[in-house]
Amino acid sequence: MRRIVAAAGVGPDDVVLEIGPGLGSLTLGLLEAADHVVAVEIDSLLAGALPGTVAAHAPGRVAALTVVEADALKITALPRVPTCVVANLPYNVSVPVLLHLLATFGEWQRGLVMVQAEVADRLAAGPGSKTYGIPSVKMSWYAATARVGTVPPSVFWPVPNVDSGLVSIVRRPAPQTSASRAEVFAVIDAAFAQRRKMLRSALAGLTGSSAAASAALEAAGVDPQARGEVLDVTAFARIAEQLPSRA
């Protein structure tokens, strides 16, 4: 827990957004370092117990905690503006939660999340990697990501059957493009829907035909016979600019 807080670089000026605090182990560590922690918890029993846990183990920091009982996938407002996100994310919703937080709360500039090791590899993968896919590209629209550590199952209760990975997130400007994020993400989704397909075939449904897809790809400076896993987010943005629907 202290290793995670240290790796996140949490300091006395930070307002930390924590997702899924559970029993509060990470919350206590964050409260030692941060100015304030906003903890979003979907489980009403756990959300109700967290203030008592802090009162018992860190009585001087009770006022520095705000618990929000809500679904992190649906939350659109927070009681304080976060400067960073630090969380042990639920494995089954980790990628959607991250993308939602990046899209909805633009103020936070950095983060450190613990996710399933396989998910960590996908979040941090670059073009050409076997693990590069939709999560990798969509995350790169918002931020630079890197795998910064591994956490063994033995530190958890109950003990899971998988390793966990730590991923650092540093916000950066979105690619400069005339296409909207929704248009770029639609191209990404189509390109990876069937990984073995050439882009001219994978994007045929989006453009209306394989010929139209080839024309859009060539206009974007992309080989129509290439596959999605070799392209970075700026290339997907160039393709989105050439969609027939934008003409």
Please describe the structure with a list of short key phrases separated by commas or semicolons:
247 residues; alpha/beta; Rossmann fold; Helicase, Ruva Protein, domain 3; 2 domains; 7-stranded mixed beta sheet
How does this structure look, described?
This protein is α/β, with parallel strands linked by helices. It has two domains: 2-171, Rossmann fold (3-Layer(aba) Sandwich); 181-246, Helicase, Ruva Protein, domain 3, CATH 1.10.8. It has eleven helices and seven strands. It has helices at 2-8, 25-33, 44-57, 94-104, 117-124, 134-142, 181-193, 199-202, 204-207, 210-219, 233-241; strands spanning 15-19, 36-41, 65-69, 84-88, 110-116, 143-151, 164-171. It has a seven-stranded mixed beta sheet, with helices on both faces. It is elongated and about 65 Å long. The model has no long low-confidence stretch (mean pLDDT 95). InterPro entries: KsgA/Erm, rRNA_Ade_diMease-like_C, rRNA_Ade_Mease_Trfase_CS, rRNA_Ade_methylase_Trfase_N, rRNA_adenine_dimethylase, SAM-dependent_MTases_sf.
